[in-house]
Structures are given as structure tokens and as C-alpha cells.
Amino acid sequence: MSIVDKRRGSLEIIDSKKIISRGSLYVAQARLTAMFKWVWMILAIAVANPVLYLLSIGVGVGAFIDKSAGPAGIDGVKYLTFLAPALLATAAIQGAIDESVFPTLEGFNWWKNFFGMNATAISGNQIATGVFLASLVRVVGTVVIYWFVMLAFGALESSKAWLAIPTAVMAGVAFGSITQAIAGRLKDENVFFVIFNRFVMMPLFLFSGTFYPLSSMPGYLQWIGWISPLWHSTELGRYLTYGHAMTQSMAITHTVFLFSLLVIGFFSSRRVFTKRLAK
Amino acid sequence: MSSPLISARGLTKKFDEFVAVDAIDFDVAKGESFGLLGPNGAGKSTTMRIIGATSQRTSGDLTILGMDPEKFGPQIRAHLGVVPQQDNLDMQLSVSENLYIYGRYFGLSRKFLKAKIEELLEFAQLEEKRDAKVESLSGGMKRRLTIARGLVSEPEILMLDEPTTGLDPQARHILWDRLFRLKEQGVTLIITTHFMDEAEQLCDRLVVMDKGKIMAEGSPAQLIKDYSTKEVLEIRFGSERNSEMANQLRDMCERIEELPDRILLYHEDGEVLLEQIYSAGLHPKTSLVRRSSLEDVFLRLTGRTLVD
Ligand SMILES: Nc1ncnc2c1ncn2[C@@H]1O[C@H](COP(=O)(O)OP(=O)(O)OP(=O)(O)O)[C@@H](O)[C@H]1O
Ligand SMILES: [Mg+2]
Predict the structure, then answer these.
(1) Last residue of a domain, one of B186, B205, B221
(2) Quick one: closest CA in A to B153, which residue?
(3) B81 lines ligand 1 (CB under 6 A)
(4) ipTM associated with this complex
(5) Residues in chain A whose Cβ is within 8 Å of chain B
(6) Which residue, A27, A120, A229, B207, is the most exposed by fewest CB within 10 angstroms?
(7) Domain boundary residue among B173, B194, B221?
(8) Boundaries of domain holding B45
């Protein structure tokens, strides 16, 4: 006898209140199941990325820079120590983009599986939140691994250094949630990627005080840093990992900036998803 | 009769200025199997998505299971099983993971799903593919998986948008058999299809849609009675001569349809008509008398054949 004959029916077996309260977690579970298929790849990248960058630029290039900078160092520390928080934030942002942009494009444009999810009791808000939560998991993993590699390289000098983990995570998911909202609106993503990579990601990476202090750049370029989550996160990271000089009001400004971005990105991606699905 | 499970009044959907669904009215009773028929672009899938409580209507009234989908989308969708026209499986997951995760979206437990997945894999004849990535399945296998997925939550209302497109005859019959059994158990079915035999087999009642409007409504038998004659005579004179001959034959029957390759003559008695044609000295190359089908109703109402 097959189960068809034992059918109880959705009215009996389904509790829609439960779905309304936990739906985002179900979506996150689906995302993590897919992500887990790549877990070794993701972990390998998460480890290799900091090791290679910190070795080549931090230690390699750093040797030259430290020599010419003399005992004062860069911002009072070794170049490696100066650079590491910026790379930490970059890795967080990159991981967040991977886990928010690609699932969103798949879900709406390539495989349309978001429409499949939305045909169940799952709402657009829950899909957006679930994607966000899964990317949060990835970003936390990436940042924690990065942080331990920094520790191994001796790049953490302050007792507050562990706080660089949540700030980098916040920067990552803040940026990720904004790109998630943008990706949710895209019908033709190819042009977008070209523009995004060349005119947004590259400049942000190069002009956010990543490799040298923002203040040593000409004034007319410094605005890029100010709108860049990477710079705000890097500044906080430097303050927390080695005690880079920072007034309390600046620390608050950086935090508020990142947090606002996160809130805006999170809620607008929910709205974008819901609207697109209701078309 | 108790109040209908689905009730639409003046249901309208516009995409910008374009009216895809134009003020349609219909009711579907519990346990009924209701069909939407119509040519490409008629608005069937759009209607299905609105009933599926995902796409928002532009205007009109709609209640499903006594609720308005605009306010109670998730509560309604909890009891729907949806098989969309285009498969939208999760391509990164395996066959059984797709079923499992979909079941999770309904909040179903691991224990329940474990047994359910076995049953659905058997139904979809995908037992051997359970661990295969969806990407590696053939088109028909993906379709079968999408259909199986729609059943995971034991839905009260099952919505199938051209379910058997791409299925081989055996898979079609397995599905029909399953749908009959679900219907016996009181499940309400909403089906769109381009296969008239499917509509005749599966639907208690159907509407023919064209350009967003409902052209006719009734049981398959009633529609055939209302919009066609008892029999149809199909004759061919060869493609060059068909239209010339059609003019001569026009007065001999109730209605005539000229298709590129043949002429359809509508008459209560096809054999009698054929005799008349021979006596008039006309000699078609081939002739065939058959009973009217929904195909003829469709042609009459929309001016289009289903299989071009
Ligand atoms: N998202 C959309 N945006 C704009 N127009 C749309 C959209 N979806 C459907 N349409 C239009 O609405 C009309 C009805 O489409 P629909 O998919 O409902 O037709 P259908 O009856 O299901 O056709 P088919 O038999 O080809 O599946 C078509 O003209 C289509 O172009
Ligand atoms: Mg359609």
C-alpha cells in the first residue's frame, strides 16, 4: 500500500503559523545545504586567501616598507599589522557578495527557484532573510578563520582584537545585503557585473585606505573612502587590532555607518524580493 | 453545495497597460477538477499564479479556502501544491534533497519527509536518481520531479500548469492514475493543458480562455454539445485544392474549418455527409469520420488548432 492511501492532507499535517515564524530558517537551511557541497572549497579559500596575501604583501612587500619607514613603522606598527585588518574586511565583503548575489541571480533569473519557494507558504521577506542568514554564516566562518591566521602571523596586538571579528562581519553582510537588493532587481546581470567589478569593487579596494592611510591620498579622492564600507571597517579593525588612534566619536561614526548600511540593505532586499515575486 | 473553495469575480491582471487576465469569473468546488484551456498567451499561467497566491491581482475579488490571497498568502499557500509550467527546481541540490527541502518549506518533519520522499521517488520513477544532481536529469525526469515535489505536502488543492508537457506516454498515464486517486480522496485539481484528451479525461469542468477572457465554460461533454456537432468529417483534397473545395462544401454542413492540410466539416452524421459529397461528384483523397472532441470546441472558440 502506498502512502497515497494513507493521505491525511495538508489541513491536518501543515501548521502555517510555524512556517510564518520559521520560514527564513528553512530557506537558510536550503542555502546552507547547497553551500555545504562546496565546503572544502570554501574552507580552502578561507585559509589560503589570508595566508597568501599576508605572506606576499604583508611579509614580502612589508619588508621593504618597514625598512624605509624606519622604527616609527606605518601608523606605528609593522606593515603587515597595518594591512591585515583591511584584508580581513575585504575577505568578509567578498564572501558576503558571493553568497548574496549569486543565489539571488539563480533564484530570480537563472533557475527561478525563488518562485518555487514562494509557491509554498514561504514569503519573499523570508527568502531574502534566509539568503542573508546563510551568507552571514559564511562570512562569520571566513572572518574567524582569517582572524586566526592574523593571530598566527602576529598581526593582533591589542586585547580588543577579537572585536574586529564582529565589525568585519558587519561590514561584510552590510555590503552583501546591499548587493543582494541590487541583484534582486536585475533582469540582465552581465552589464551590471562589468560595471560593478570595474567601477565599484576595484576603486573601493584601491582607494579605501587599504594599502596606505586614506589621509595620505589627495583630498579629492578621500571621499571614496568615506562612502566605502571597506574603509570604515578597516579603520575600526585597525583601532581594535593594534590601537590605531581614533576618537570615540569617529569610532561611533564608523559603527553607525556600517550598521545603517546593514539595516538599509536588509530591509530593501526584503522589499525588492517581495515586490518581484508578486509580479 | 457548500461554498466554493475558490471563487473569482472580475479577476483582472495587468502588466503595465497590457491586460493579461480580463475580468474573469469562476468558482471551483471542493473535490472538483477544473481545467483551463486556451491558446498560447491566453492568460492561463497568469491566472494560475494568481490562484497560487503569489502573483497579485490588479483588481477584482478572489477568495481561496475562504481567504483573500492578498492578506493571507502564506496561509493559503500552505495548502496548495503547485506544479508550474516551467520547472524551477533547486539545481544545486540532488533529487531527494529537492523533495526534502521543499517539504521543509512546509515545516514538515524529517521523519515524515523520509517516508514521503520514498513514496514520491517511486511515483516519479526516480529511485535510481535519488542522489543525482538535478542538473543531470533529462527534461522529462525534471518534470516528474517537479510534479512529485508538488505533492510533498499532501495539498488540498493541486495546481498543475501543463503538467504532462515533455512526459512520455507511460509517465503521463502514471500521473493520470495518481490524479484520479487524489480526486477520489477529495483533493481539488486545477489543470491547464494543451492536450485535449487529457482535459477530457481529467476535468469535470473547464473554461476555455482566449486573450484573457473566458469564452465558454462547462463539462467536456457539455462544451462539445454546445459548440460542435456530434460528428466531424475530415477530408483532404491536397493542399492546393483544399480552399477551392471548401467553398463548394460550405452549404452542405453546419460549419466548416479550413486547416492548411485538411478540411473539417461539422455534421450530425459524418457518413451521410460523405455520401452527399461523393454524390456531388467530389472525390477527396482521404476522408475520416470521427466524433467531435474538445479540439473542435477549441477551434470554434479561438479559431486556432492546438497542434499546428
Ligand atoms: N511577467 C510578465 N510581464 C509582462 N507580461 C506578461 C508577464 N507574464 C505574462 N505576460 C503576458 O501575459 C499574457 C498571458 O501569459 P500567460 O503566461 O498567462 O499565457 P498562457 O495562457 O499560460 O500561455 P501558454 O499556453 O503559452 O503557457 C501573455 O501575453 C504574456 O506575454
Ligand atoms: Mg502558460
Answers:
(1) B221
(2) A10
(3) no
(4) 0.89
(5) 2-4, 7-11, 13-16, 18-20, 22-23, 26-27, 29-30, 33-34, 37, 106, 111-123, 277-279
(6) B207
(7) B221
(8) 6-221
What is the Cα–Cα distance from B276 to B247, expressed in whole angstroms? 15
Residue of chain A whose Cα is closest to the Cα of B149: A116
Phi and psi for A160 in degrees, rounded to 5?
Answer: -85, 5
Supply the CATH number for residue B190's domain.
3.40.50.300
Which of B97, B116, B156 has the CB atom closest to A10's CB atom?
B156
Residues B103 and B213 in one domain: yes
- Give yes or no: residues B44 and B187 share one domain: yes
Q: Which of A113, A129, A187, A274 is the best residue to mutate to test the B interface, defined by the most B CB atoms within 10 Å of its own CB?
A: A113
Cβ atoms of B175 and B163 within 8 Å: the answer is yes
Provide CB contacts within 8 A for B254, sequence distance 6+.
Answer: B229, B266, B267, B268
The model's pTM is: 0.92
Average pLDDT, chain B: 93
Q: How far is CA A36 from CA A42, A49, A260, B229, in A?
A: 9, 19, 30, 61
> Ligand 1, atom 3: nearest CA belongs to which residue?
B15
- Does B245 fall in a domain? yes
Same domain membership, residue B66 and residue B167: yes
Beta carbons within 8 Å of A45's beta carbon, 6+ residues apart:
none
**Cβ–Cβ gap A278/B55 under 8 Å:** yes
Strand partners, B64: B6, B67
End-to-end CA distance of chain A: 42
- The CA distance from B101 to the nearest CA of chain A, in Å, is 6
Residue B193, judged by CB atoms within 10 A of its CB (0-12, 13-18, 19+), counts as buried
Q: How far is CA B95 from CA A239, A273, B47, B98, B133, in A?
A: 49, 26, 29, 5, 6
Q: What are phi and psi of A200, to 5 degrees?
A: -115, -60
Residues 6+ apart with CB under 8 A from A121: A14, A16, A19, A20, A23, B74, B75, B77, B78, B105, B106, B107
- Mean per-residue pLDDT, A30-41: 94
**Does any CB of chain A come closer than 8 Å to the CB of residue B181?**
yes
User: Is residue B138 located within the same domain as residue B260?
Assistant: no
Tell me if B298 is assigned to some domain: no
| pLDDT score recorded for residue B306 | 60
- Look at residue B299 and tell me if it is in a domain: no
b/e burial code for range B110-147 (CB count within 10 A of at least 16 → b): eebbeebbbbbbebbebeebeeeebeebeebbbbbbbb
Query: Does residue B253 share a domain with residue B135?
Result: no
- Specify the number of domains making up chain B: 2
- The reported pLDDT for the residue numbered B308 is 46
Same domain, B39 and B145: yes
Provide the pLDDT for residue A251.
95
If you average pLDDT over residues A207-221, what whole number do you get? 86
B279 contact partners, CB below 8 Å, separation of at least 6: none
> Is B153 found in the same domain as B272?
no
User: For residue B268, what is the domain's CATH number?
Assistant: 3.30.70
Expressed in angstroms and rounded, the spacing between residue B55 Cα and the centre of ligand 1 is 12
- pLDDT for B3 beyond 70: yes
Question: Cα B34 to chain center, whole Å?
Answer: 9
Residue window 70-89, chain B: list those with CB within 8 Å of chain A.
Answer: 73-75, 77-82, 84, 86, 88-89
